[in-house]
Amino acid sequence: MSNENSWDRLLQIKTVGRDETNADEYHHPYEPTPYCVLERLVGSGFFGPDDVVLDYGCGKGRVGFFLSYRTRAKTIGIEYDDRIYESALENRKSTISRVKPDFVLTRAEEYEVPTDVNRCYFFNPFSVEILHKVMARIIESWYEHPREVFLFFYYPADEYISYLMTVDELDFYDEIECDDLFVGDARERIMIFQLPDYQEVEQ
After folding, report:
1. How many other β-carbons are positioned within 10 Å of the β-carbon of residue 200?
2. In angstroms, how far is CA 161 from the centroid of its own chain?
3. Residue 78 pairs with which residues in a beta bridge?
4. pLDDT per position as a tens digit, 76-99
5. CB 128 within 8 A of CB 160
């Protein structure tokens, strides 16, 4: 817990804690990705100043603030809960990070993915039914502007994995092991999927 509080203090934000207030069968409770997992994500080398990261179910914005601070990547957070969204905006005002995330209050399945987004992050924010619709939006953006896109799924639910393995456009790329951070839980990993840039492959 000390690491959680230490990073919040350093970034001058408030993201610690779990919130189930508006959770239902389609929208999962707010629970931030542990900072030790985000440190491992940053260490993977997938994020830099030229990347645009879309954080689905961003909550109070922890992923965006951390990635922006550590890698200077541009980040966009999507949140449907207006109360939690307001907390993200308050954090945006107070953070020391010079590269500040943008936040959008909307339902993930209704959000049109900008064509410069090339990284997407998920920590089980919603049901697999919503994930189907979100993936359709991501793939639509990818077809509109072909580019390499990486999708990161932390602590993936079995139904997420089963579905993702059936998406024709997606390739399983790699995974980042995190089970040593929380011993005894095989789900402690970040699975990485890829939408390839076929234009680049064909050259």
Report:
1. 10
2. 16
3. 56, 104
4. 999 999 999 999 999 999 999 889
5. yes
What does the pLDDT average to over 112-140?
A: 96
Q: Provide the token pair at 96.
A: 């020391």
- Domains of the chain (ranges; CATH) run 2-202 (3.40.50.150)
Q: Is the pLDDT of residue 128 over 70?
A: yes
| Beta strands in the chain, from DSSP E residues, in sequence order | 52-56, 74-79, 102-105, 119-122, 149-154, 171-177, 189-195
Q: Is the CB of residue 181 less than 8 Å from the CB of residue 168?
A: no
What gap in Å lies between CA 7 and CA 16, rounded to an integer?
10
- Res 21: pLDDT: 61
* Secondary structure letter of residue 14 according to DSSP: -
Residues for the chain: how many in total? Answer: 203
162/167 Cα distance (integer angstroms): 10
Cα separation, 72 vs 48, whole angstroms: 6
